[in-house]
Amino acid sequence: MISIYKIFLLLLLLFDSCLAGPVEDQTEKGCGRLGQRKAWHTLSKKEKRAYIDAELCLMSKPASQKLSAAKTRFDELQAVHQIETSWTHWVGAFLPFHRLFLFAHETLLRDDCGYKGHQPYWHEPKDAGNFLYSDLLDPETGFGGNGSGSKDCITNGPFKNYVNSLGPFFNNTKHCINRNVNETESSLSAQKFVDECMSRPDFASAWPCIEANPHRGGHAGVGGLMLDPVSSPGDPLFYLHHTWLDKLWWNWQSIDLKHRLTDISGTNIIPPEFLAIFPPEPPEFPRPPYPVPGDPGNVTTLNHVLDLKNVIPNRIIAEVMDIRAKPLCYTYVEPS
User: Fold this and answer.
1) Is there a domain that residue 10 lies in?
2) What is the largest CA-CA distance in the chain?
3) In sequence order, what E strands does 176-306 have?
4) What's the pTM?
5) 169 domain-assigned
6) pLDDT-derived band of residue 30, with 50, 70 and 90 as boundaries?
């Protein structure tokens, strides 16, 4: 016969497990074990080398889609961003689109180049105001340092010889990966600006906050190609910067998952005050027609279609709201 004491212990364990909720790095929503996205500065040298080798592999693989002037699989992602610029900046789809875009990058690294890890992120508050000395700009274990010369080309690190065939902006010309670090701009990645966004009560106010200072801090702080709003994925730092922004969105969502996993809003048309940031598109890049596929008007909804131009399958925003669910199946590890 089971004693009252054992029954009490069983009930206590059951109660504790209910309080604990799901364990994010275990099985979630049909995914199996979730992929763990970690901060770059916490990776071992071996893990850093594996990621960089996979990126170099992607830069050597011939393009499989007929997109713009893309020569490699790495270029194809840049081409998607170039084509989709007017759909995906200063609009409600900014964070959802880039979440799927980052997943596409991780998918290509793993499927095309045998990468066993997951997409790392740049923990930018650690380096705010001091990008030049970031682990990410290390020439030996990172992505190479600042640019130099008349064109600000990077001259060290694993990507110094890569010839990019897309950009600047909507142009398609052969050029180096260039950088021009600005520490005044990099200061916008500071924790105080992150905290400001985390305090916002709804997506309508949180998304523009994240797209403002934290977003600008990484792009303008690195400068050069990263400051190009159209063709910035030509610098591999783009993916670690935007993975950081995706983590910020997930951190904000996690404050109130019950409500924030379905909280989406915003415009589908770039407001006039931001339109001036982008140069006029050439005829092959017309501004997209409206309404956006999946949306009935100028309000971003969960049925809004995110178009990756067949690099990976298209998804609607509803499918990328929860990173722990298919198709994404990952979580973020806080830096130690």
Assistant:
1) no
2) 84
3) 305-306
4) 0.91
5) yes
6) confident
- Tokens coding 136: 């990410």
Q: Name the residue type at position 40.
A: W
Cis amide bond preceding 327, omega within 30 = yes
Domain range for residue 289?
A: 21-332
Please list the residues that pair with 72 across neighbouring strands.
62
Q: Which two tokens stand for residue 73?
A: 């699989």
pLDDT digits (tens, 9 = 90+) for 173-185: 999 999 999 999 9
Is residue 123 assigned to a domain? yes
Which residues are bridge partners to 267 per DSSP? 299
User: In CATH, what number is assigned to the domain containing residue 159?
Assistant: 1.10.1280.10
DSSP 278: S
Measuring CA to CA, which residue among 122, 227, 143 is closest to residue 185? 227
Q: For the stretch 244-265, what's the b/e string if a residue is b when 16 or more beta carbons lie within 10 angstroms of its beta carbon?
A: bbbbbbbebbeeeeeebbebbe
DSSP 113-161: H---S---B--GGGTTT-GGG-GGG-TTTSS---EETTTTEE-SSTTTT
Rounded-to-5 percentages of helix, strand, coil across the chain: 45, 10, 45
Q: What is each CA distance from 172 to 101, 144, 233, in whole angstroms? A: 21, 24, 14
Helices (H) and strands (E) in the chain, counts: 11, 6
Residue 15 lies in a domain: no
pLDDT tens, position by position, 254-302: 999 999 999 999 999 888 888 777 777 777 776 666 678 999 889 999 9
Domain count, the chain: 1
The pLDDT of residue 289: 64
Amino acid at 12: L
- List the one residue out of 209, 210, 240, 208 whose CA is nearest residue 222: 240
